[in-house]
Amino acid sequence: MLLLALVVVVEELKITDLSNEISSLNNEVSSLNQQLTPTGGIRVVSAEMASLITPAGPTVTITLQNEMGQNVTSLEAVLELSMNNYTYGFPGVSLSNPLKQGQSASDTETLINGGFSTGEAYPLVIEGTTQGLNFTCVTSTEITTGSTSTSPSTSMSPSTSGGNSSTGLGQGGTPFLYPVYLTSDDACTENGYGVPCGDSSLSDAYVFNCAAAAASASGCTELVTSTLIPSNSYLITIRFPYVNQTGEPYWANCLFEVEGDTAPPYAYCVMVNSTAFIMAWEGGPPA
């Protein structure tokens, strides 16, 4: 009986020691997980549209800040608009050049056929790598009108970077030296139809508040009423952006159609905010 009791005691001691070892290992694993698991997230600092755009469409810069608590070694964001998704690759963030805690990274992309509205939040899916672990953050952001930069770039700094750069355009945000803008302050006719009139004054340009519709396959159709002779009103359908199409001039980025108008149907459109644009073409030097 004494021998049996000793065996039981020894076995209990072994079980206790094994339990202690397992508990110690669990604590070590838990501690290691706490060191490896991100404690924060990626904050969207801004999503800004340049006040002037490229012929292909609006240019939007997204700036993200690292609040993961660890270095981020890769970063990608997908902006989901109603018609298309747009991927921001943040090429400046890498294993050899990580985005440290508190730092911000910016990436700029041209949103070809991209239409959006101010005051509306759009989904933004952020993916990346930190400490060898992959992470995904799903959030949303509004797109605001910001700087005039139109050149894609990526930058990192402890705070949000900014600044302006040359647009490489002509007068009034167009590629023309002597632009004329579609206006409703005049009255023009052709074959008995009201047709678009041009004015060299940028302040008199007619503003189309339908950028999202213009980016669709059917385009934006709007009634332009002459303030001089209201009976000379006409319907105009505009597709914008509209680029790299057969027969389209190299400088054009939008296509328009007006019944009775025999002029070439191409123009250069310029965004004036995130939902509105104006239309222009070359007018030639003043007489």
Task: Summarize the structure in words.
The chain is mostly beta strands and 287 residues long. β14 and β15 form a beta hairpin. The protein has two helices and 16 strands. Helices cover 14% and strands 38% of the residues. The strands form three sheets. A seven-stranded antiparallel β-sheet has the order 11-10-16-15-14-13-12. Strands 8-1-2-5-9 form a five-stranded mixed β-sheet, with no helix packed on it. A four-stranded antiparallel β-sheet has the order 4-3-6-7, with no helix packed on it. It has two domains: 41-157, Immunoglobulin-like; 171-282, no CATH class.
Summary, kept brief:
With 287 residues, the protein is mostly beta strands.
Entry keywords:
single chain; 287 residues; Immunoglobulin-like; 2 domains; seven-stranded antiparallel sheet; five-stranded mixed sheet; 2 helices; 16 strands; elongated
Helix content: 10-25%
Straight-line distance between termini:
123 Å
Q: What order do the helices and strands follow? A: HEEEEEEEEEEEHEEEEE
Biggest sheet overview: 7 strands, antiparallel
